[in-house]
Amino acid sequence: MIRILIADDHHVVRRGLMFFLKTQKDMDIIGEATNGREAVELTTSLKPDVILMDLVMPEMDGIQATKRIKEKYPNIQILMLTSFSDRDHVIPALKAGAAGYQLKDIEPDDLAEAIRKLMRGEHTIHPEATTQLERENEPSEISPHEEHPLTPREQDVLSELTKGKSNREIASSLFVTEKTVKTHISNIFAKLHVQDRTQAALYAVKHGLTEPSGH
Questions:
Q1: How is 52-72 classified by DSSP, letter by letter?
Q2: Within its chain, how far is the Cα of 34 from the centroid?
Q3: Are the CB atoms for 200 and 158 separated by under 8 Å?
Q4: Residue 130 has what pLDDT?
Q5: Average confidence (pLDDT) over 101-130
């Protein structure tokens, strides 16, 4: 028998889940919690195999409850059962340790199969949640200078640097002190994620940043 704990602050949801799951011959509802704190306490006393965890609950939300439970009982499987499919909920829930993430509109038979998958050591994630995961894992297409734009003066310094000029020559050309030039170059290196003048010059050429700002 799969021993299940239901954690949801809505009475109607808990009743609906219990009504269906009790018809499953391989499942046993051993308890119900109305908030995350209760879920943690009941987990300690009941040691369920699977927890159906709501995401938004009073006193302690599902993510915090999941973290605490998984830290102490890593073998207990947690299935998030919620109404939220956006990345701000999906990613934290899975990072907290949930092995499953399903929406509350899931078909009853699909829910039962999702629970069985967890017991087989498989993950079960709603398609909408899977999309959020794929977006999270996509490599960023934003270049460093787009994420952290150079100021007009930094652009001027980079343009002069690309021409092979020394700090003194750049200072003279832009009518600033060498100390100011050094500060600008340090900021440029940090923003472009480069280590030295050569890398900065190559980056500037590659991304078309060699023209002065005109300011």
A1: EE-SS-SSS-HHHHHHHHHHH
A2: 26
A3: yes
A4: 75
A5: 91
Write phi, then psi, for 72 (nearest 5 degrees). Answer: -95, -35
CA dihedral 182, 185, 190, 193 (to 10 degrees): -140
Give Cβ neighbours of residue 202 (< 8 Å, ≥ 6 apart). none
CATH architecture of 2-137: 3-Layer(aba) Sandwich (3.40)
Please list, in sequence order, all residues whose beta carbon lies within 8 angstroms of the beta carbon of residue 207, skipping any fewer than 6 positions away. Answer: 143, 145
> Euclidean distance between the first and final Cα of the chain, in Å?
74
| Residue 40 backbone phi and psi in degrees, to 5 | -65, -45
36 φ, ψ (degrees, to nearest 5): -65, -35
* 36 neighbors 64 (Cβ within 8 angstroms): yes
Question: pLDDT tens digits, residue range 23-67?
Answer: 999 999 999 999 999 999 999 999 999 999 999 999 999 999 999
According to CATH, where is 3.40.50.2300 located in the chain?
A: 2-137
Separation CA 52–CA 56 (nearest Å): 13
Instruction: Say what the pLDDT of residue 74 is.
Output: 93
Does position 212 have pLDDT exceeding 80, yes or no? no
